[in-house]
Amino acid sequence: MMVPQRSMFAGCGQAVDIVAGRLTFVAVTDRDAFASVIASQHMIEYNVDRELVYWPFFKDFGPLNLGLAYRFCRKTAQMLQEAETQGRHLVYHTGPGDKYKANAAVLVGMFQVLLLQRAPERAYKLLQPLEPFLPFRDPSMGTSLFDLTVYHCLCGVGKARDVGFLDWHLPSSDFNLAEYEHYEQVENGDLNWIVPGKFLAFSGPAAQPFQMGTYVTHTPEDYHRYFHLKGVKAVVRLNNQTYDGQRFVSGGFAMHELFFPDGSCPSDSILQRFLKIAESTEGSLAVHCKAGLGRTGVLICAYLIKHHGFTAEEAIGYIRICRPGSVIGPQQKYLISKAKQLAAEGREFREALQAKSGPTSKPEDRTKRISRASFSINASSLRRAPVAPSAPVSAMEPDSAPAVAGLYRTSSNGTAKTMSVDGGKDPDHVSDPATASTADSNRFTRFMRRHTTVRITAAKLGSQSTVRTRSQSVQALSKPGSQAAAASRGRSQESQPKQAAQMGVARMLAPNGQPRKMPAALLQSGDSEALQHFESLEEATPEELKHGWTIGAASQKLLSTQRTSLRS
Question: Which of 49, 225, 426, 451 could form a cystine bridge with 408, CB 3.0-4.6 A?
Fold first, then answer.
């Protein structure tokens, strides 16, 4: 009978076996004792605490975003191949530190749910011996109004897998890491797909291109081509009118105005209008408020609850992983209070649709008909050679930029993609991985056989494996006569390598206490004119403006480390 590997770490931390005889997860409390066990047992160990880093707005500390989670899963799969080649046991470890442990638990849970095809309940059951986990919180300055747990995050990811939003478990998975990390940056558009083919969340465009160094704000025209390529049919604005909405209308998009105050919850009228717009629009919606986080997030989550069967907690957990900082303050409790009503409305909606047009698919099957051209979360994949036993594996290995830099790229072929779940469901019972039947081991073996060339990878690597920043892509984006063209003239077209997805971005709180993502150069330059420009766009009272911008100690430390790294 196999002895669980976790028992070997009793004196140096909390440990759980994730894959029987192959992978153990340890929350370290005594580093020296842990190192001694690793050396004596000739195990392979790895840690990503300093590799995969969450950039906070203020007091928030996780969970890590979808791109970083993907990097973790890719690295773990590669390390497992290496360990198997050498006939050695693999140990993933984190800590010491409660924040590290909570983020690591979500990563390990996502690996189980998205790659090993385990039910969220089973994945969390294996992690329970490591409790307690520090709950995640929203990015606001005040007291946390809602505790987002590790379990909530795993259930949200599990639901996203079941409805077809995330398909990493499929051998034909099309996740494009470079595209996700490119477009989520402020300088490249600050956008994320939450529901592939239906909802894109982005920060509000500027009325005029404002240039500071190599950074230029985006105007409505900058998004036109990307939106057309991705099937966006309408734009929903939730904040005050900082630009003329006709600039999207002239580009062929419907424009909807649903203003409600920054950081607040939507009225019933706003909520129902948003849902009706989403239900009646044939194609995708691009939704924004000021930062594309709070107001944008709460309404998209309401749609997830009504039409895709998410609970409020699952919706918040999922959207925070897709777009960190989403759903803020009272908006969290609002979703919880509205969840039963929204779920009931969803059932009524489907019953009415069925009565009118005959049997329809279940809500979790609706995304199976999404066109490949609509995807940003999912795009092209790459086969790679197996990892050599001695090859170093870095989670932060750079990936290529999208095929066309800027807010648009070459469209995929547009053929339909079936998003069905591959493989059977987990059994209802949950057992210790070290004493369970061989079913889990066989499932993992099948997965590794499908991925012997490591299909959990990203876009095709070119001669330069870099993610390009806004400063390199303006020329490709700007067309003669566009408002961004004048601001971009004369700037360098050379590619600038980037090692981390968050390079160049500072997360902070605006004068009214709401989270914002700003170019780090804005802080580093101390440009008072630039700060005043951005303040003028805020929905803040004169009294709030006196407070100025707030950047947390953790963000300051990360920016300082980044500057030191760039100088060296």
Answer: 225
Q: Give the torsion through C-alpha atoms of 141, 146, 148, 152, to 10 deg.
A: -150
Per-residue pLDDT band for 359 (boundaries 50, 70, 90) equals: low
Q: Which CATH class is domain 178-306+331-379+401-418+456-503?
A: alpha beta
Number of helices followed by number of strands (H, E) in the chain: 19, 13
The rounded Cα 556 to chain-centroid distance in angstroms is 22
Going by C-alpha positions, the residue among 287, 297, 204, 207 that lies closest to residue 247 is 207
Contact between residue 517 and residue 291 where contact means Cβ atoms under 8 Å apart: yes
Structure-token pair, residue 376:
């940003």
Q: Which amino acid, 137?
A: R
pLDDT tens-place string over residues 278-337: 999 999 999 999 999 999 999 999 999 999 999 999 999 999 999 999 999 999 999 999
β-partners of residue 94 are: 27
CB atoms within 10 A of CB 276: 10
What pLDDT digit, counting tens, does each position of 164-191 carry? 999 988 877 777 899 999 999 888 999 9
Backbone angles phi, psi at 284, to 5 degrees: -90, 155
Residue among 539, 548, 535, 534 at smallest CA distance from 217: 534
Q: How many CB atoms lie within 10 A of CB 135?
A: 14
Sequence-ordered list of residues with C-beta below 8 angstroms from that of 98, at least 6 positions apart, any chain: 133, 134
Question: Measured between alpha carbons, how far is 74 from 64 in angstroms, rounded to an integer?
Answer: 15
Q: Is 289 a catalytic site residue?
A: yes
- Indicate the length of the chain as a whole number: 568
Q: How many angstroms separate the CA atoms of 484 and 481, rounded?
A: 8
DSSP string for residues in 371-388:
BGGG-SSB------PPPP
Q: Which two structure tokens, joined as six digits, stand for 85?
A: 């080649």
Which residue among the candidates 155, 265, 289, 322 is catalytic per the annotation? Answer: 289
Q: How far apart are CA 98 and CA 133, in angstroms?
A: 7
Chain segment 114-167, per-residue pLDDT in tens: 999 999 999 999 999 999 999 999 999 889 999 999 999 999 999 999 999 999
**Residue 451: both structure tokens together:** 């991925």
Q: What residue spans define the domains of the chain?
A: 178-306+331-379+401-418+456-503, 504-568
Radius of gyration in angstroms for the set of CA atoms belonging to the chain, rounded to a whole number:
23
Helix residue ranges per DSSP H, 87-164? 98-110, 120-127, 150-163
Residue 165 confidence (pLDDT): 95
**pLDDT tens readout for residues 201-222:** 999 999 999 887 677 899 999 9
- In this structure, the number of other CB atoms found within 10 A of the CB of residue 344 comes to 11
Distance in angstroms (rounded) separating the CA atoms of residues 28 and 380: 37
Total-model pTM = 0.78
Q: How far apart are CA 280 and CA 530, in angstroms?
A: 40
Phi, psi angle pair for 92, to nearest 5° = -95, 130
Indicate whether 226 pLDDT > 90: yes
Backbone angles phi, psi at 124, to 5 degrees: -70, -35
What sign results for the dihedral spanned by CA atoms 545, 551, 553, 559? negative
Q: What single letter denotes the amino acid at residue 97?
A: G
